[in-house]
Prior knowledge:
The complex is a heterodimer of chains A (211) and B (443). Chain A has nine helices and five strands, in the order H-H-H-H-E-H-E-H-E-H-E-H-E-H. By secondary structure, chain A is α/β, with parallel strands linked by helices. Chain A folds into two domains: 5-76, Methyltransferase, Methionine Synthase (B12-binding Domains), Chain A, domain 1 (Orthogonal Bundle); 88-208, Cobalamin-binding domain (Rossmann fold, 3-Layer(aba) Sandwich), CATH 3.40.50. Chain B has 443 residues and is α/β, with parallel strands linked by helices. Chain B has 17 helices and ten strands. Chain B has helices spanning 10-22, 32-49, 66-70, 75-80, 82-95, 110-116, 148-153, 155-167, 197-229, 243-250, 253-263, 265-290, 309-329, 366-373, 385-390, 393-407, 426-439, and strands at 59-60, 121-124, 127-128, 136-137, 238-239, 294-299, 333-338, 358-361, 378-383, 413-417. In chain B, strands 1-10-9-8-7-6-5 form a seven-stranded parallel β-sheet. In chain B, strand 8 (358-361), helix 14 and strand 9 form a beta-alpha-beta unit. In chain B, helix 12 (265-290) packs parallel to helix 13. The chains are: A alpha/beta (211), B alpha/beta (443). The interface between A and B is medium-sized, with 30 and 37 residues.
Amino acid sequence: MSGDLVNLLADLKEEEVIALVKKKLDSGEDPYKVLDETSAGMAIVGKRFAAGEYFLPELVYSGEVLKQVNIILKPHLSKGNKQTKKIGKVVIGTVAGDIHDIGLNIVEFMLDVNGFDVTNLGVDVPVEKFVEAVKQTKTPVLGLSGFLTPAFDAMKETVEALEKAGLRKNLKIMIGGGQMDDEVRKYAKADAYGKDAMAAVSLSKQWYGVK
Amino acid sequence: MSKEWAELTPAEKREDRFKRWISPPGASFTSPQAAQAYKEKTTRLNRAFQLKEPDRVPVFLPAGFFAASNAGTNLHTVMYDYAELRRAWFKFLNEFEGDTFMSPGLVPPGRALDITDYKLYRWPGHGLGNNVLSYQAVEGEYMKASEYDALINDPTDFWLRIYMPRIFGAFDGFRKIPSLMSFQEIATMGFVPFGFPDVQASFQALLEAGRESNKWLAVVAEVGKAAMAAGFPGMAGGLAKAPFDTLGDTLRGTQGIMMDMFQRPDKVQAAMERLVPMVISSAIDAADFSNTPTVFFPLHKGADSFMSVKQFETFYWPTLKKVCLALVNEGILPVLFAEGSYNKRLEVIQDMPKGSVAWYFDQTDIIRAKKEIGNKYCIIGNVPTSLLMTGTPRDVKEHCRKLIEICGKGGGYILAGGANIDEGNPENLRAMMAAVKEYGTYK
């Protein structure tokens, strides 16, 4: 039986997923359809994570399986990029002086599977780089991540720099990670604190005015 | 000691260790008052660990590298300038009251890290800005998935010839060291690699790092001794890690271990079992050396947000529990510092003897923890770090009052921060002290 790629991926059946993707391509199935199915499978992984059925190990593992699928798919997708419709842009990054990215990557994952076009600036991002990225992308939503206490001041400085650059008015800023909470949100003058990656998704949706 | 150590029961061993901590043989104090204060503080902590009511609620001031910023310097400077390290920690010692003292032992000697070209961490001035008040681990796969057997079969060999060359650039030459098994019978070829210039350079770097570390230790030991002489006990006799964290933090890395949980769970289990006796013996050595009966476990990847309860029960808890019980049998009290939150773990962690360990919480709902495990283990925590760093002394004191009133009930509680603060208003630390004095006295 050919199996259902969407559910096999959602259930993290690594070997079956790889075998089925190869089989589909060999039998001439549209690679973009396969791609859509893997996206649907990853969306279910995201839902299960949001529901507390899956945890970080499952996210990491699903990412690994997806990576393997993409390696197989890539040569078949070269005939021009089909752009999937995205809700909109979200820029995220871990603030200066902090190199933690586990939470940051979960947020990227969850925003991505929920239809956002995410720019992940990585870790230890200097204030100027955030300013530049907001200017370039014109993003209305920015997510600042931080794990340790030095991030408190780095977040504050980042928000102040955006203000100074005149970019703050049309920008919503959310913060999260490690020792962050609503006290830090007030201190840094951000718009919202999100306690997990699901909060990052719902805040972004709220700010974009989608359900 | 009348009986041989090995013949003592765990309870007798614990009593003996705490007795030696509370009345350290050969200790000298700066004054009779200091001697008295030391005894009061250790007794206070011991009673809390035993779930009894002390004279008042004890407090751990969460002053990680606070001493540095308090002295107008920073972590970068005190990592490299031991005179500054000494000055800052002495200043803190003279300015703050507390039931314990945070040694500068967690400030690593910067030059030793430079000499060895340490790659596992970034620190201020080395991958992080000079003003950053922390050092941070660099996520990576420092042990490959294919190397589980090398670790399991011969950890020391793996450490020396594979791992160390990878995490210390200056130890690259160790790759060429022969397996020490080659020294069987009369040495012929066995010495040859030790004559290679790159192997010798690696050993030179090791020797130099050793010399540097001893300069650093002289200051750390001086501060520690002075703190004790002034009546402050140390908080932890040593540091240890959960086997899952050892494997997941700095060997396989977060990504690696999480994939291994699916792709090679048996290897993960076997490797953790292999680490158990090593963690146990180094923790016992540390407690013996420092004559302090507590061992501090910073717990990382078993937190609520990292894995499910089932994964916690399968992968994280069994080997950690094994380590803890072995220490308990040696009379040592493991202090388990649950970073992040452990709200979903409170049921699972109840399967150890009463009073055997203490739980130190970061963001766990400590009121609930008091209800669920408070008559089983001493609980410690957890003034939010954000409040300590951004709040007013009044807010901090008020928060402490609530914690003391609820968690302090019946004893078995130590007031502490959620995590360490490295800068901020010194009055917020004093507010914690004021709160235990004002609200924490047991009648």
